Amino acid sequence: MKRMLLVELKNCLRRKEFMFVSLLVIITSITSFLAECYNFFGAELTNVRSAYDLGMVQGINSLLPALVLISPMLATILYSDSYYSDYKLGVYKNILSRTDVSLYLWSKAIVIFAITFLTFFIPMILNQALVLIAFPVEGYANHYSLPEYGFAMNYVPQAMFDLYRIQNPLLYNLLNVIIISLFSALFAVFSYTIYFYTKKGKFTVITGVFLGFIAVEIIMGALNLKQYAINTYMIPGNYGSFSIMLGWICILLSLCLIVIYITINKKELALGGE
Questions:
Q1: What is the dihedral of CA 122, 12, 69, 169, to 10 degrees?
Q2: pTM score
Q3: Which pLDDT tens digit goes with each residue over 160-196?
Q4: Torsion of CA 237, 240, 244, 249, to 10 degrees
Q5: How many Cα atoms occupy the beta-carbon half-sphere of 69 within 13 Å?
């Protein structure tokens, strides 16, 4: 398993798609930071908000909503097509002649999940580190020149994790970064499983996953069921439900595991019959 994981990891890191997506997410992170710097450049300290309020999670000029919108497409581009590429290039059976099909498919799934998670997680943490360097930990942009997050009147009970935003803003930001990265990683693995059963090409899967994500969001919004949309839980300060978010994570994870398990069994039977 360790050898296969290293092989898949090297293959992923060498891809131009990985370079493109990683660079785009990093640029988004740095641009959000620079926008906040520009917005508060030369301002009096009493007009500067806390560093925790100026990261990608809570920042006024954050590009996070745009990143969340295209995250299913970016996650799919990253490495989800690795099985499909092996199959189309004709190296699939050659690889399986030297390793077990179960090891092969699970190694890909693990690397896809881990790399996609880190591709989104690291740039957002970098953004938080940059704002902590450039801005004060305690913000004073209010009438009393006291830390903004110290006022109980800012608490919104309907917003997820909002008590953490007031009591421990760093933890609040970290939770949201983890949630966004987790859903992006699940999108990537879900797209990986779609490639098992389609021969229509990479572009079809990438656009299909992205348009499907957008369609669900539009339908849920039109039916006034926004709390059931995945996008809701990828936007900080949402009025969703923790149980529904957990349900989506379990559904996506279960679907991925079941499809991979079924595919392994089918391919083992096919190989056994040859």
A1: -10
A2: 0.90
A3: 998 888 888 999 999 999 999 999 999 999 999 999 8
A4: -30
A5: 6
